[in-house]
Known about the structure:
- The structure is a single chain.
- This protein has 126 residues and is mostly beta strands.
- The chain is built from 1 helix and 11 strands.
- It has one helix spanning 103-106, and strands spanning 4-7, 10-13, 18-24, 33-39, 46-51, 58-60, 68-73, 78-83, 92-99, 115-116, 120-125.
- It is globular, with a radius of gyration of 13 Å.
- The protein starts with a strand and ends with a strand.
Amino acid sequence: QVQLVESGGGLVQAGGSLRLSCAASGRTFSSYNMGWFRQAPGKERVFVAVVSKSGTITNYADSVKGRFTISRDNAKNMVYLQMNSLKPEDTAVYYCAAGLTNTMVVVTTTQFVDYWGQGTQVTVSS
């Protein structure tokens, strides 16, 4: 069992930056690939970024490439999402996700996620 708690969301102007954090419980954090998904009002939850168990492999949605950076600290059971050059279309609830299967790093759909956080709201004003 893994519990995930996100923090760092908020209101920011377009062009600004935010850093999301996700704290994971349990002693098996390094056994999980970790990712971020987001869900805008009235839309489905979609992939944003993922990092492999060791932190050596990352994958990003085309819409955030070059602006967002995912990282993890296995010693602290933490995963981060640095978001720069934010746009109004980045507005959504952001969810931290954990998955055991390595397919999660390549096939970036929700079906390979085993655990979800409760979400944190990010609002980007124009």
